[in-house]
Amino acid sequence: MLAKTAKKELPDIILVQEPYVKDNKIEGLPGYLKSWLSKNNKAGIIALPTCNNPIFLLSGNYIVAIKIQVNSSPLSIISSYSSPYCEIDQNLNETSNLITSLQGEDYLIGADLNAHSQSWGYSDFDTRGEKVLNFISSLNSQPLNTLGALPSYEQRNTKGWKDVTIVSSTDLVNNSNW
């Protein structure tokens, strides 16, 4: 499914959460693709050949980050995963520390935080969702998710909007399609 979507959408970068990992590598990727994983192997970034000179920034416990150039400006790309069985605060703190270190540079976060909020498609709201919304607000960031978007997770009789994309600036919002 990932290969089919990539062929259709032609991305430069793919953010993944909960990939199948073997020997600390995302399984099934062709050798010409660059990839990075968080320390817990639950968040990953895949750079396709069209991604020009990605620079590895960090592999944290819950996040992994690279930096690319977009229109001669730096953009940090962060992939993040938080298990529904763990406290989300550690993930949000790790992400916040990285963003602080960027000193005002733009960033995009693609995350599976297992958090419910009406802001990204769920009909309900939970404590994790409230923490994520407070996190987004504290950073003066914005979610890219659009209301009415298709679920990012579907299996048998279950569907959900677990994935949230967060950006640092209105320019990124205006130039993105979720």
- Coarse structural class: alpha+beta
* CATH class type: Alpha Beta
Indicate the low-confidence ranges by residue numbers: none
CATH architecture: 4-Layer Sandwich
Query: Quick one: overall form?
Result: globular
Give me the CATH superfamily. Answer: Endonuclease/exonuclease/phosphatase
The CATH topology corresponds to Deoxyribonuclease I, Chain A
CA gyration radius, whole angstroms: 15 Å
Domain unit count:
1
Question: What count of helical segments does DSSP give?
Answer: 4
| Helix content range | 10-25%
Reported for the largest beta sheet, the result is:
6 strands, mixed
Gap from first CA to last CA: 18 Å
Strand content: 25-35%
Encode the helix/strand succession as letters. HEEEEEEEEHEHEEEEH
Domain Endonuclease/exonuclease/phosphatase: 76-172
Pfam families: Exo_endo_phos_2
Protein name: Endonuclease/exonuclease/phosphatase domain-containing protein
InterPro entries: Endo/exonu/phosph_ase_sf, Endo/exonuclease/phosphatase
Question: What can you see in these coordinates?
Answer:
Residues 76-172 form the Endonuclease/exonuclease/phosphatase domain. This is Endonuclease/exonuclease/phosphatase domain-containing protein. It holds the Pfam family Exo_endo_phos_2. The chain is an alpha+beta fold. The protein has one domain (1-175): Endonuclease/exonuclease/phosphatase (Deoxyribonuclease I, Chain A, 4-Layer Sandwich), CATH 3.60.10. Helices cover 21% and strands 34% of the residues. It has 4 helices and 13 strands. The chain has helices at 2-9, 89-101, 127-138, 170-174, and strands at 13-17, 21-22, 25-26, 34-37, 43-47, 55-59, 63-70, 73-81, 106-112, 142-143, 153-155, 158-160, 163-167. The strands form 4 sheets. Strands 6-7-8-9-13-10 form a 6-stranded mixed β-sheet. Strands 1-5-4 form a 3-stranded antiparallel β-sheet, with no helix packed on it. The radius of gyration is 15 Å and the shape is globular. The model has no long low-confidence stretch (mean pLDDT 87).
